[in-house]
Amino acid sequence: MWRKYTLLFLALIALTTPFVWGQKSHPKGSYLVYVGTYTGPTSKGIYAFRFDLRSGKAGTIELVAETTNPSFLAVDPSGQYLYAANEISQYKGAKSGGVSAFAVDRKTGKLAFLNEVSSRGAGPCHVTLDKTGKYVLVANYDGGSVAVLPVLEDRRLGEASVVVQHTGHGPNPERQERPHAHQIELSPDNRFAIANDLGLDQLLVYHFDVAKGTLVAGDPAFASVEAGAGPRHLAFHPNGRFVYAINELGGSVTGFAYDAHQGLLRNLQTISTLPQDFKGKNDSAEIAVDPSGKFLYGSNRGPDDIAVFAIDSAKGTLKLVGSAPTQGKTPRNFAIDPTGKYLLAANQDSNNIVVFRIDLKTGGLTATGQVLEVPSPVCIVFVPAP
Prior knowledge:
Oligomer: single chain
Largest sheet: 5 strands, antiparallel
Helix content: under 10%
Radius of gyration: 22 Å
Number of domains: 1
Distance between the termini: 40 Å
CATH architecture: 7 Propeller
CATH superfamily: YVTN repeat-like/Quinoprotein amine dehydrogenase
CATH topology: Methylamine Dehydrogenase, Chain H
């Protein structure tokens, strides 16, 4: 008799548990998606929505933190803290921007403000965290400098441990009249930091000391792209052997072979991101390699599309295999979800994010029909939801 009642009890649990858990937790594959914006008449700061990778559906978009011009976002390795570049020119009377720290409530998606410090240069446009989560690195576009900010025990930010000022200029008198640091990124092993400087046509390489939070110029100190190309952002290949830089002014991607032991970059190839029949002004913007390492994507703010490249896994070279209109204006940024199934494109001047499904065999992009209204979106990051 006891066995009969035990089986009935277990059956009852099996029937009711999925329903109860479904109400109290989020399904596997659910992500919080945070959106950085340029604030103004319509935007007030950082927005967020939930995204389900199983269905490809996005939830309701909400304002989760009010802050000025959070133009680029980065999440620490634990997913519990978020840092934003506040792209401004004056900070407490100095020619500088700011970097803000927030605690992430992964249940509600809300952000709790922790503190803000000086970026030690005007117009900060990119932030990243080192692999230990102990430092935030920031690139100051208008100031032409990069800085390292220590993350304190309570996850607030401390004052900069080092600031490196770039010097020089490029051949374009309007866009390269002085240094314009546009990104700083850590190598996969956390030993080197590479800074794209649009004004210098250089990828500057630094030894990164995680114990001291310092940057020391490599030897050689930089790798160059074509004169006037203006490198904006870079992406490492998942195998760590190749680095790709998208050139904003040149409308191209430059591929490099990467020596992880010495932090050396050797030029492999430069290839256009634009359709052959395109004529007119263009500023290329974001770049990303899909998690499989088979495809590379780059956005163009001219034809307003995303170029798709196939990657030769042995040589690291690229072949343009297609492009997809972003169905909006000025795709400043896009992000690929951690599984490589979806690409979300942020169209800054049409105030929307368009969701695309990625063909895992061809790399092609197909719009899912979801167009999310977000004011002046300029950065997208994914955070696993509980």
